């Protein structure tokens, strides 16, 4: 099968061929470390996590670079507000970002460089741009001259003449052209600074990604990505800087994920319509949040609502119910002999063949521009077939059916690893999900557990009246009890 990716640069899907056989370099723009991450950040993180997982699963050696911006106007403003240095602010939010990503099941990048670690590289790149006539200095500030770079606007599809005609001119602006952007900023009182040929100052935002991507991946690499809000001006400016310096394409493919939207508007801190990852994970299992984000194609917008999250939770519950049924059915059977799939017959053979076709269908979907929505559709169709087979009155656990159930568990587990889903023991998943759902509805888990213990004691003492009172009390809180010969379990209605 051939992997095809949609590139923002060309506006179409193209066959993906790595620059170096067997190896892939990916750079994705990371966070500005001045606040906690929200669900919009989670979307980009999960998208590139799955892309990286899939490419590695296909046998590629992937170097994934994702940076941290640790010097920026917002970081400086927060440091002034709190009366601490910028490093204390950035360290705090980098640490919290990493904690959020770990809880969300997002693997660490191969490299996580920070802007302040590459100041010398930024100064050297600015020098090269000035030597090529693409940048100029005014009173300690250095600007990129966009009209000197022939390809400016090619990623976003914008026309430079039209942009210039529509630009607002500030009479106090020192720039030659209102579209020119800062490569280096002269230091102001109270701001961090580094020595440079143009005096004390700090880098502009765009220059850092050009330097760090090329430092770790070379002048040209395979995939550059990020949220679609970065297409212009950030990625457009990266191209101008990098290609203006080297004369080579910066990346072969440009991959951008769509927004998470709330009431048709992009989720963002500036609009104050955001929900943090940590508050979402207090209410929803991490795999539920991942499923919610992966149920749409990565280039499509995702509408964030309680209804959509509830739907994702129900979908995840259906899947884990299937895994639990497989686990429970197999627990009482000890298969001691090997099994030849060719000797399977009847409905067992039909189910096995359908299961065996799932990996190829999954690859077909993922090879089509990482179409997780379609891949999940194939998985859940298989889950439906499994559930139907296990619910069939003629279904019994034998060596043959046990072999098929084991095959199902293994296949679903392997595909789940690519998506970062279905990774838990089903009993543990339901335990964690139940506690989150209880917390989301304002229920006290410890109180519920205490009442269940009291009810157990009442039943032991044959105090049926008190046992019924406790059941009714819990039912009033929408708590459903299930008694088994060995224990009592509960769930939220």
- Class from helix and strand fractions: alpha/beta
Unreliable sequence segments: none
Strand count, sense and barrel status of the largest sheet are: 4 strands, parallel
Count of separate structural domains: 3
What's the β-strand tally? 15
Going by CATH, the architecture of the largest domain would be 3-Layer(aba) Sandwich
> Quick check: average pLDDT?
93
Q: Remind me, CATH topology of the largest domain?
A: Rossmann fold
Q: What shape does the CA trace take?
A: globular
Classify the beta-strand content into a percent band. Answer: 5-15%
The helicity comes to 40-55%
Please report the distance between the alpha carbons of the first and last residues: 45 Å
Which strands sit side by side, in order, in the main sheet?
4-3-9-10
CATH superfamily of the largest domain: HUPs
The rounded Rg comes to 28 Å
The CATH C-level name of the largest domain is Alpha Beta
Contiguous helical run count: 16
Summarize this, please?
With 493 residues, this protein is α/β, with parallel strands linked by helices. The chain has helices spanning 39-57, 73-82, 86-104, 119-131, 160-166, 205-217, 231-246, 277-283, 286-294, 306-331, 346-367, 372-391, 399-419, 426-440, 445-460, 464-476; strands at residues 4-7, 12-15, 23-28, 61-66, 135-138, 141-144, 181-186, 201-203, 221-227, 251-257, 260-262, 265-266, 302-303, 479-483, 488-492.
Characterise this structure.
This protein is α/β, with parallel strands linked by helices and 493 residues long. The chain has 3 domains: 4-283, HUPs (Rossmann fold), CATH 3.40.50; 318-423, Isoleucyl-tRNA Synthetase, Domain 1, CATH 1.10.730; 441-492, no CATH class. Helix content is 50%, strand content 14%. It has helices spanning 39-57, 73-82, 86-104, 119-131, 160-166, 205-217, 231-246, 277-283, 286-294, 306-331, 346-367, 372-391, 399-419, 426-440, 445-460, 464-476, and strands at residues 4-7, 12-15, 23-28, 61-66, 135-138, 141-144, 181-186, 201-203, 221-227, 251-257, 260-262, 265-266, 302-303, 479-483, 488-492. The two termini are 45 Å apart.
């Amino acid at each position: 099968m051939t992997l095809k990716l949609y590139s923002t640069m060309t506006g179409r899907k193209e066959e993906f061929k790595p620059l170096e056989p067997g190896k892939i370099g990916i750079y994705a723009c990371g966070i500005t470390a001045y606040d906690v991450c929200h669900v919009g950040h989670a979307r980009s993180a999960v998208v590139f996590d799955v892309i990286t997982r899939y490419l590695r699963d296909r046998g590629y050696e992937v170097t994934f670079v994702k940076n941290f911006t640790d010097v920026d106007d917002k970081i400086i403003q927060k440091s002034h507000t709190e009366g601490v240095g910028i490093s204390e602010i950035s360290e705090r939010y980098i640490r919290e970002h990493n904690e959020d990503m770990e809880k969300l099941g997002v693997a660490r990048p191969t490299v996580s460089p920070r802007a302040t670690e590459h100041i010398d590289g930024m100064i050297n790149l600015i020098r090269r741009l000035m030597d090529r006539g693409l940048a100029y200095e005014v009173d300690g500030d250095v600007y990129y001259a966009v009209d000197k770079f022939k390809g400016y606007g090619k990623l976003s599809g914008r026309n430079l003449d039209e942009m210039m005609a529509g630009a607002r001119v500030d009479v106090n602006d020192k720039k030659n052209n209102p579209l020119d952007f800062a490569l280096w900023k002269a230091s102001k009182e109270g701001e961090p600074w580094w020595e440079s040929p143009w005096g004390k100052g700090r880098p502009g935002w765009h220059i850092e990604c050009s330097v760090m991507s090329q430092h770790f991946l070379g002048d040209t690499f395979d995939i550059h990505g990020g949220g679609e809000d970065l297409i212009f001006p950030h990625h457009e400016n990266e191209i101008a800087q990098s290609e203006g310096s080297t004369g080579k394409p910066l990346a072969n493919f440009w991959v951008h994920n769509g927004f998470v939207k709330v009431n048709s508007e992009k989720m963002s801190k500036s609009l104050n319509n955001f929900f943090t990852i940590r508050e979402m994970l207090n209410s929803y299992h991490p795999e539920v949040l991942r499923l919610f984000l992966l149920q749409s194609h990565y280039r499509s917008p995702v509408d964030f609502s309680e209804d959509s999250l509830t739907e994702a939770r129900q979908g995840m519950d259906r899947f884990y119910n299937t895994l639990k049924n497989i686990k429970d059915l197999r627990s009482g059977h000890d298969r001691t002999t090997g099994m030849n799939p060719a000797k399977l017959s009847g409905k067992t053979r039909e189910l096995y063949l359908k299961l065996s076709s799932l990996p190829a269908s999954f690859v077909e979907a993922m090879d089509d521009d990482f179409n997780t929505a379609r891949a999940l559709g194939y998985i859940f169709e298989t889950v439906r077939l499994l559930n139907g087979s296990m619910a069939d009155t003629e279904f019994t656990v034998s060596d043959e059916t046990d072999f098929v159930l084991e095959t199902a568990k293994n296949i679903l587990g392997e595909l789940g690893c690519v998506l970062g889903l279905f990774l838990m023991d089903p009993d543990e998943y339901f335990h964690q999900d139940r506690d989150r759902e209880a917390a989301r509805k304002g229920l006290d888990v410890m109180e519920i557990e205490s009442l269940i213990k009291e009810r157990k004691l009442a039943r032991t003492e044959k105090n049926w009246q008190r046992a019924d009172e406790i059941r009714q009390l819990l039912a009033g809180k929408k708590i459903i009890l299930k008694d088994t010969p060995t224990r009592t379990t509960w769930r939220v209605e």
